[in-house]
Design brief:
The complex is a heterodimer. By secondary structure, chain A is mainly α. Chain A is built from four helices and no strands. The termini of chain A are far apart. Helices cover 37% and strands 13% of the residues of chain B. Chain B has 16 helices and eleven strands. In chain B, strands 1-3-2-4-6-5-10-11-9-7-8 form an eleven-stranded mixed β-sheet, with helices on both faces. In chain B, a hairpin with a 5-residue loop joins β10 and β11 (427-433). Classes of the chains: A mainly alpha, B alpha/beta. At the A-B interface, α3 and α4 of A face α10, α12 and α13 of B.
């Protein structure tokens, strides 16, 4: 995927390209979940990024318009790797039970009332 | 005693020399300032030298000593800090071009504690930009250039506390302060052949330190001996109203014989010298510890957990940088893009990572809790060369199990110490993972190990020009 045309072709093939492209100038309004489509995992040795990851990566042109197609492909691959790691944490949502709480530490600072 | 002897002494020895009147804090400060000027840039180790502050603090230390006031074992000892700790005297750059002019008007709690203990701050030391949170891929990852180990300047000084490691190893400071989110004290300690102590999460206040990951960041000592790391930790540890996670806990070791476990397959897939040096280290430990071999690390996704938290918290911590598109200003090409993928981390993945941690802590405690330390080689290889991607450095070394991910996921302390040398004259290291707030157990073992060996006293031959 070495040029803009092939990159956009891949995005279009994902079925989410139009929606994502339409909002790419304001990526903050396009949370990752908005770009959810059927991911296209590849089993090849050098897998292509998933369509979902490509769509999310494209939104980052809203932050840096100079990102190249190669940059976006790199970002998309990294997104896929991170999502893969996420899948290890709670495979298919079956490992963690409803009551398993995260580590959080929220404290309300003491306020002296005069 | 020559100037080199002085420069390479540990802080404990320097204190003895000052107490005996053999040398003053001003003498030491001048010596280290000169060495920082001469060698700091060669090893990519220094960002800012604080000459004025250092001389002022050294004069104060000498004046007080003359009046009979000794604040602590660090009184008058010159030191340096990783340039992610706030000080009002100079920029705090976080190792990165986008923040090179950033100023704070206060000392980080750790710096304040050492100042109050009589320490003399010499310099802000180089580091991997943003403490490596964006996924740098080679040693050229700081706006001050790649960090280089004093043992062979063609090789990396490790990261992300690169400058602290190199400065301690080259005798440019009496001791240093580094930080670790996942590996950033132990890795440069190994690359530079020094002793690094990663404290338990919450042992040391993070106030005034750059946040990469609020739930993972730790601040700890890097020094020329294990005894120094314990002394320094005693000074910087403790509760701080400015950091609600910092707590007071005892720092003591039981008087019984230490119990050390050796991780199962600890030397599987490591470099031959790493294996040989680790096996020799175990023989030394066996002289004064009860050793249990082949203890297994409980199965859990430690790496995925730490990685997901680093991504999510790191993206939030640097959201302004990412959204402004200024990550392009970072030095490392991997860092130009790494923040974007982190920004896309799913909230549910982050929450699940934090849900896994209590389970991991229980599992690891069940497996390791009865031991004072769990031993492994700190790294599978010697440090990689500058100038090529890390992944290409040692392609034939498979890499064995590591406790760095598990230890950081569970917030546990660890100590790394030199245990010999490998190819290209580069140091190798042994690490001990401890129980929560069990740092004194680790230093007790490390002190005994260092009393029986001399790897921590070895000195590199320094060069005055960076190799091409």
């Amino acid at each position: 995927m070495k040029n803009r045309r092939s990159f956009l072709t891949a995005v279009a093939a994902s079925g989410v390209g139009v929606a994502v492209l339409g909002k790419s100038a304001d990526a903050q309004s396009v949370p990752a979940s908005a770009a959810v489509a059927s991911p296209h995992p590849s089993s090849s040795a050098s897998p292509k990024p998933s369509a979902e990851a490509i769509a999310v990566a494209l939104t980052f042109r809203g932050f840096d318009a100079a990102l190249t197609d190669d940059d976006l492909e790199t970002i998309a691959r990294s997104i896929d790797r991170k999502r893969g790691a996420g899948n290890l944490l709670n495979p298919k949502g079956t490992l963690l039970k409803n009551a398993d709480e995260p580590i959080t530490r929220f404290t309300v600072p003491f306020t002296d009332v005069k | 005693m020559t100037n080199d002897d002085l420069a390479f002494s540990d802080a404990t020895t320097l204190q003895k020399l000052m107490t005996a009147g053999s040398v003053s804090s001003v003498d030491l400060t001048k010596l280290y300032l000169e060495r920082l000027e001469t060698y700091g840039h060669v090893y990519g180790a220094v960002v800012t030298i604080l000459r004025e502050r250092a001389m002022k603090e050294a004069k104060r230390a000498d004046r007080e000593r003359k009046a009979g006031k000794i604040r602590s074992p660090l009184h008058g000892v010159p030191y340096g800090v990783k340039d992610l700790l706030a000080t009002p005297d100079a920029p705090t750059t976080w190792g990165s071009a986008p923040y090179r002019d950033q100023h704070f008007d206060f000392d980080a709690t750790v710096v304040k504690k050492i100042t109050d203990a009589g320490g003399v701050l010499l310099a802000k030391l180089a580091m991997v930009e943003l403490a490596g949170g964006f996924g740098y891929s080679d040693a050229d990852a700081s706006f001050t250039g790649p960090g280089r180990t004093p043992w062979n300047a063609k090789f990396w000084s490790g990261g992300s506390s690169s400058g602290t490691g190199a400065s301690v190893a080259a005798g440019l400071v009496g001791f240093g302060i580094g930080t670790e989110t996942s590996g950033s004290i132990l890795n440069p300690a190994t690359a530079c052949g020094i002793t690094g102590l990663r404290p338990t999460y919450g042992r040391v206040s993070r106030h005034g330190a750059m946040a990469l990951c609020w739930s993972l960041d730790k601040i700890g000592p890097m020094a020329r001996s294990a005894r120094d790391t314990e002394t320094i930790l005693r000074v910087i540890a403790g509760a701080d109203p400015a950091d609600p996670t910092a707590v007071d806990r005892p720092l003591r070791a039981p008087s019984r014989k230490p119990r050390v476990a050796v991780l199962k397959n600890a030397t599987h897939g490591v470099m031959p010298e790493v294996k040989a040096n680790f096996e020799a280290s175990l023989k030394v430990l066996a002289q004064f510890c009860d050793i249990t071999m082949d203890v297994e690390l409980p199965d859990a996704p430690y790496g995925a957990t730490v990685g997901t938290i680093v991504s999510a918290e790191g993206a939030a911590a640097f959201r302004d940088l990412i959204e402004s598109g200024k990550s392009r200003m970072l030095q490392n090409t991997g860092d130009h893009l790494g923040g974007y993928a982190s920004y896309a981390t799913l909230a549910v993945d982050y929450i699940d990572a934090q849900r896994r941690r209590p389970m991991m802590i229980k599992k690891v405690n069940d497996a390791f809790g009865k031991f004072d330390g769990v031993a492994t080689p700190t790294l599978s290889t010697v440090t990689p060369p500058v100038g090529i991607p890390f992944n290409n450095a040692y392609p034939n070394v498979e890499g064995g199990p590591s406790l760095i991910g598990a230890g950081n996921a569970c917030g546990l302390p660890a100590i790394g110490m030199p245990n010999g040398f490998g190819e290209n004259g580069l140091p190798t290291g042994m690490a001990l993972l401890g129980v929560a707030f069990g740092e004194a157990r680790l230093t007790a073992i490390a002190k005994r190990y260092q009393a029986a060996t001399d790897f921590h006293t070895k000195r590199p031959t320094l060069v005055t020009q960076t190799p091409s």
